[in-house]
Amino acid sequence: MSEALENVLEYEEDTQKGKYLTFLIGKEVYGIEIKYVTEIIGIQQITEVPELPEYIKGIINLRGKIIPVLDVRLRFKKEPMEYNDRTCIVVVDINDVSVGLIVDSVAEVISIPEENIVPPPEANTGFSNRYIKEIGKVGDEVKLLLDCNKLLNDEECENLLNI
Amino acid sequence: MVTQNPDLEGLQLDNFHKAARQLNKLTNELQDVVMSIRMVPLSMTFQKMNRIVRDMGKKLNKSIELEIIGEETEVDKNIIERISDPLIHLIRNAVDHGLEDAEERVAKGKPPAGKITLEAKNAGGDVWIFVKDDGRGLNREKILKKARVAGLIHKPENELTDKEIYSFIFTPGFSTKDNVTEFSGRGVGMDIVSNNISMVGGTIFVDSVPDNGTIISIKLPLTLAIINGMSIKVGKSRYTIPTISIKESFKVKNEAIITDSEGNEMIMVRGEVYPIVRLHRFYKIDTAVTDINDGIIVMVENDSKVICIFADELLGEQQVVVKALPKYIKKVKGIGGCTLLGDGSISLILDIAGLVDIN
């Protein structure tokens, strides 16, 4: 029995490995590992919470569970955009913390084989570079794969505290 | 909740409202009954202490008298389960650390038998539990020395108040005992005690007078789950104020406002002056209501300190289920949690104690 369960678990892990959910912010395509994603919901009423960094838009009521939402656009210091019917909230679960990520639109789930994933270029050209863990090549397109932990945790703040 | 559904707005539904009121009354009654089942007197927990005190007294060769006051005070069942162990620990501390030997006591001119008082009482929406002993009190110098060694002191020592120094005993791994005994000296106790207490939403305070004894006060909420709250509106956001802390609410005219040189606003009500906290300014919320004439003042009280909160309008009173803010959002000043409203939207619950302290 336990063996069978193990097999199932392994199987599950395998199906999720190498799969990425891609979404759009402006013109760029970003991807996050599918294992973090719990669900995708449309934009809903957000309750503002005062005193938070600008990119944390507030909290939402997800079937009785209260989760914070952060705007990935603002997180990357891009221009804010009006939410429309394409705007989605990607609910991710990282280390038992549920957070909603507001993205311009969700594209697709794709598999990227390991050999097509390369580390990001060294040159620190943009702000959002910091959150990019790897770069995936799909056909002749490039997807920026995000590091979820870094996305959520505010290094800037912590750095400031350490000074 | 149902009656506040936006779909019903503007409809003339006399019979429906009558029925809804009736249902509301019934559900309230049901809820009261359920809540009263959850409320349990503290006597069971307190009576356990008798035995602990007697056993420890025998082992340590101290004669101790335990006085129990207010054991009939009722607290939510969940809370009782959680505070039983911390209380045992506090009592053990009092017996082992606090009380002196009979000879030492006589030498100090105290009666040879030590006395421990365990007291519980209701105050507003809170329950207070005091553990008091008439022993030697906390050793300020020893705590300070240990804190210094452990690197806990972050400001000039002469600026530390006694209370701050005594609070060091809640730090993990802190013990002033040099040797470990059966009962104490491991330095884990008070840390766990304060953790357990804060887990149920309580706070713990310590005060001590050398050779006169130590008093540990624990403040607990009456219940964890449900509070009566007044919903208010500021801009697009809705906030809930626990009804228990509201003294009154009223409209004022601009002329009644006094402004000091730093722009702090105050209001004179029946000869007393209270500070005004404009929520929209405090939390930087956009709202159309910035004129004192248009909004409403809610006077709230905590620990006999009073402030006046300025909001756009009152939305009405209802019972709300308290939910914690997500962990990802760390502490926001003046906000104690959040709750879901009838239409699924979220209202933030103001932490009046916190607000009063800031202002």
TrEMBL record, chain A:
<feature type="domain" description="CheW-like">
    <location>
        <begin position="17"/>
        <end position="157"/>
    </location>
</feature>
<dbReference type="InterPro" id="IPR002545">
    <property type="entry name" value="CheW-lke_dom"/>
</dbReference>
<dbReference type="GO" id="GO:0006935">
    <property type="term" value="P:chemotaxis"/>
</dbReference>
<dbReference type="InterPro" id="IPR036061">
    <property type="entry name" value="CheW-like_dom_sf"/>
</dbReference>
<dbReference type="GO" id="GO:0005829">
    <property type="term" value="C:cytosol"/>
</dbReference>
<dbReference type="GO" id="GO:0007165">
    <property type="term" value="P:signal transduction"/>
</dbReference>
<protein>
    <submittedName>
        <fullName>Positive regulator of CheA protein activity</fullName>
    </submittedName>
</protein>
<dbReference type="Pfam" id="PF01584">
    <property type="entry name" value="CheW"/>
</dbReference>
<dbReference type="InterPro" id="IPR039315">
    <property type="entry name" value="CheW"/>
</dbReference>
TrEMBL record, chain B:
<dbReference type="InterPro" id="IPR036890">
    <property type="entry name" value="HATPase_C_sf"/>
</dbReference>
<dbReference type="InterPro" id="IPR005467">
    <property type="entry name" value="His_kinase_dom"/>
</dbReference>
<dbReference type="GO" id="GO:0006935">
    <property type="term" value="P:chemotaxis"/>
</dbReference>
<dbReference type="InterPro" id="IPR036061">
    <property type="entry name" value="CheW-like_dom_sf"/>
</dbReference>
<dbReference type="Pfam" id="PF02518">
    <property type="entry name" value="HATPase_c"/>
</dbReference>
<dbReference type="GO" id="GO:0000160">
    <property type="term" value="P:phosphorelay signal transduction system"/>
</dbReference>
<keyword id="KW-0597">Phosphoprotein</keyword>
<comment type="function">
    <text>Involved in the transmission of sensory signals from the chemoreceptors to the flagellar motors. CheA is autophosphorylated; it can transfer its phosphate group to either CheB or CheY.</text>
</comment>
<dbReference type="InterPro" id="IPR051315">
    <property type="entry name" value="Bact_Chemotaxis_CheA"/>
</dbReference>
<keyword id="KW-0902">Two-component regulatory system</keyword>
<dbReference type="InterPro" id="IPR004358">
    <property type="entry name" value="Sig_transdc_His_kin-like_C"/>
</dbReference>
<feature type="domain" description="CheW-like">
    <location>
        <begin position="226"/>
        <end position="359"/>
    </location>
</feature>
<dbReference type="InterPro" id="IPR003594">
    <property type="entry name" value="HATPase_dom"/>
</dbReference>
<keyword id="KW-0145">Chemotaxis</keyword>
<keyword id="KW-0808">Transferase</keyword>
<protein>
    <recommendedName>
        <fullName>histidine kinase</fullName>
        <ecNumber>2.7.13.3</ecNumber>
    </recommendedName>
</protein>
<feature type="domain" description="Histidine kinase">
    <location>
        <begin position="20"/>
        <end position="224"/>
    </location>
</feature>
<keyword id="KW-0418">Kinase</keyword>
<dbReference type="GO" id="GO:0004673">
    <property type="term" value="F:protein histidine kinase activity"/>
</dbReference>
<dbReference type="Pfam" id="PF01584">
    <property type="entry name" value="CheW"/>
</dbReference>
<dbReference type="InterPro" id="IPR002545">
    <property type="entry name" value="CheW-lke_dom"/>
</dbReference>
